[in-house]
Amino acid sequence: MKYDLKPRQIALFMLAFFPIIKMFTMGKSAAEAANEDMWISVLLNLAIDFLTILALIWVDKKHNATFYEILEENFGKIVAKIVLSIYFIYFMLKAFTPLFEQRNFVQNSFYGTSLTTFSFAPFFILAIYICCQKLRAIGRLADIMWIMTLISVLMILALSVESTDLGAIFPIGANGVGILKGYGYIIPWFTDASYFLFMIGYFKKERHGTAKILWGFIGHALLTLAFSVIFYCVFTFVASREIFPLAEMAKYSSVINSIGRFDYIAILFMLISNGVAIALPMYFATRILKKIIGIEKTWIPALIVNGLQLITATFLERYQQAIITFIHLDMNAFMLILGNIIPVLLLFIKPKKEKLNEIYKG
Amino acid sequence: MNIEKIPTKIKDVIQLLQQKVASDDVKIYEFNISNKNAVIFYVDSLVDKKAIAEHVIRPLKNLIDPTFDKITQTVNSQEIKIIESLNDVFKEAFDGNSVILMDGSNNALSVGFKQFGMRAVAEPPTSVTLRGPREGFVECINTNISLLRRRIKSPELKIEFITVGKYSSTQVAVCYVNGVVKKGLPEKIKKKIKSLNIDAVYDSSYIAKYLTEHKTSLFKQVGTTEKPDILASKIMEGRVAILVDGSPFGLTVPYVVLEDFQAADDYYSSSYRATMVRLLRLFSVLVAVLLPALFVAAELFHLQLLPLSFLLTIVNSIKGIPLSPSFEMFFTLMIFEILNEASIRMPKYVGMAVSIVGGLVLGETAVNAGIISAPALMIIAISGICLYTVPELVQTFSLLRLIFLCVAGSFGGYGMILMAIAIILYLVSFESYDTPLMAPFSPLIISDMKDALYKGFLEESTKRPKTFGSKNRTRLRVNSKKQQRKDKESR
To answer: CA-CA distance, B81 to B87, in Å (whole number)?
Structure first.
């Protein structure tokens, strides 16, 4: 079997694309519900994702098959396709928030004066191109982009440290239920294990492979957590009103005062990684749709997926806020089930005897 | 192709040769060996006539009882080949050899006494080095092979000739080191070159274009060099080299983008200096490609990117400029490209005058007349200089610069970001001869990073790059620290 990915690439995939997507409006939403304990809500989400990934590594070792193959083998083709259809909806919903954030961020921070649709629509041309790629190309993108993410995030965080008041997160745990509320509200930004669910069976089994994947996730978790803490400590009680903290966090640094807004260079690099990160749900939605329809040409499902997102992102502007609220208030359970619970449930499916022999031989 | 046999009667042979080759530079010299008629068939401009008279005609005239075997033994030449068909007679003659045909025999003898005008081995103008060998390839394939052989004196260095071109019959040499090159790669390349059905090959770039696997790609897929030391080192990394008669440029396959960021000097100077220079080259290329576009994007869409004092300078300098920022930059870039093209093509004696008119008069006057602004001119000048830090990729990067400029003028910085992602994605998914173009960065090959942007010390480069798939990976054996300590103690 020729594998598309290596464990190292999955680890770098997590490091390159997982943290970046959580640095736009996630902080504001978490702070709204959990205030100074927002980082605990973030930690809870990260911990659940970590456990799900651990479970999926075990599933991969046990079955040595893709998610679709596991479903088809145990429940038949029809059930497998129904489950995939639900995941298609899941990824389409998961794609919406980052798309919406990116569009607004681009408009607010970059184009105060120009038309949003005109400047944002080209993104979908790129997204179609990304969606048509094989998993191998995505892995290779991660190989090159993790360094951009790492340096740019660390640069923003380092510049923000000067205006950070670490005392702002104390007393820890004062918000009680608010922490859980915050946890629930930010679920759509997490449930990243779902990407990994569609990678099982595609990566090479090698020595220290599990450790590499887990270290990749831990790296991403540390960056996300550090961002959450610093974000709250910079903005404190106005954190719940900070829509695009990335462009604001570092600007109070004395270095910026003397040199100029060179933090924008880091933001530009972040946007490169983010451009790929926000196309990822659409990428997986395309792969799923391709499997459901059963066609060879990838550009057809890619066109459908991106067309739907383009229509929602540009022409249904009036309903966008309503859609976001719907996803974050009403669909978080749906996200949790598909992103965390179903992957864990796969642990209870036993591989067939022939399969076991095959794995044993392998 | 029909293989025509050589007639036994010499009269028929002469008639046939005269009939088929009606060209004044092709000579048929008739003479006798004992009492048998014989001819020497050669191309006047390609042979050393003095050597033929001395080493072929004179000994043969003294030969008694001539047989074909005796003739072969009598001729004083190391390049002797027996040929059996008329097609080969023509091929050998036009290749610069002299063909001896004798009455009563349907075989011929090709004798090599080539002589034609050629350039002396000199330092190549495209890759000048401060330190290291200064020899460069010339147009003669045999000289080039000798330059290569002098650097790899091993029987494992295989050189295989393929004749390409229906009319030109150009010799192409495929060179590789057996046991170092990836299995199957030389065969793949040879098969590809053999399948080339073309009238004539004038330069190695013809072969390079044919060897590219993605014909429409903007990016290079075959490495080129004019220096034998670089070619030898690339062969020793596991690549296959291709030399073409008539071209001073050697080709190497597989190609990775990184190799154009490495220069010969890097290997002859200190590691620290080499690392710094490589990083500088990368930075320069980014500046060359992105700076004009960034400036336009900042002027049109993102003024907040510019520091206030710089912004004020720009505002003052663009006051009264009739062109939009993107058109102004495009216009300046076009002038630069025209000047560049003209300076390459124009005769040297007018070069100085055009440089003064183009560089000083045009630039200065255009700024004073208020057609273009001083910052735009300065940015294009910086970009132009930076581009030449990686001369091998100037063509690709100058096109990319233009694309980025158009995108920045239309969509601003965000458009540039999208364009950058598209290019990165294209590059990382690109493979040529099963080798990723962006290796060792993507896929990440940590062991090959010792000679990537960071230039490791010689002792660190113990292994051949994994990128080229060589099975024989060790290229340097260094004593372990334990051994070194032992040696020290014993001393």
So the answer is: 14
Tally A–B CB contacts below 8 A.
90
Instruction: Give B436's contacts in chain A (Cβ within 8 Å).
Output: 140
| Cβ contact B301–A114 (<8 Å) | yes
Query: Which tokens belong to A103?
Result: 């569009």
Average pLDDT rounded to a whole number, residues B196-219? 93
Cα(B42)–Cα(B98) distance, rounded to whole angstroms?
A: 5
Asked if A219 and A14 touch (Cβ cutoff 8 Å), the reply is yes
Q: Considering CB atoms only, which of A114, A144, A268 is closest to B417?
A: A268
Nearest-CA neighbor of A244 among A253, A255, A235, A257? A235
Give the CA count within 13 Å in the CB-facing half-sphere of A350: 5
Contact indicator for B288, B333 with CB cutoff of 8 Å: no
Task: Name the H helices within B95-196.
Answer: 141-149, 185-194
Residue corresponding to tokens 């591989």 = A351
What tokens appear for A318 in the block? 């009036």
DSSP assignments along B85-96, one per residue: BHHHHHHHHHTT
B254 prior amide bond cis, ω within 30: yes
Range of lowest pLDDT (A87-96, A347-356, B319-328, B401-410):
A347-356
CB B430 within 8 A of CB B442: no
**Residues written for chain A:** 362
Q: What is the pLDDT of residues A191-241, one digit of tens each?
A: 999 999 999 999 988 889 999 999 999 999 999 999 999 999 999 888 888
Q: Helix, strand, or coil here: A45? A: helix
Residue B462, SS3 per DSSP: coil
Bridge-based pairing of strands B98-102 and B108-111 is antiparallel
Q: Which residues of B touch A272 (CB under 8 A)?
A: 417, 420-421, 424
What is the C-alpha separation between B169 and B139, in angstroms, rounded? Answer: 15
Digit-coded pLDDT (tens) for B429-473: 999 999 999 999 999 999 899 888 888 888 888 889 999 988 888
CB-nearest to A126 from B305, B418, B438 is B418
Got the DSSP string for A128-140? HHHHTS-HHHHHH
Spatial contact of A37 and A172, defined as CB atoms under 8 Å apart: yes
Q: What is the ipTM of this complex?
A: 0.91
List Cβ neighbours of B92 (8 Å cut-off, separation of 6 or more): B81, B83, B99, B110
Inter-chain CB proximity B305 and A261 less than 8 Å: yes
- Whole-model pTM: value is 0.87
Contacts of B466 in chain A (CB under 8 A): none
CB-based contact A136 B429, cutoff 8 Å: yes
Determine contact, residues A119/A106, Cβ cutoff 8 Å: yes
Nearest to B315 by CA among B331, B335, B298: B298
**Residue B432 contacts residue B254 (beta carbons within 8 Å):** yes
Residue B69 in tokens: 């075997």
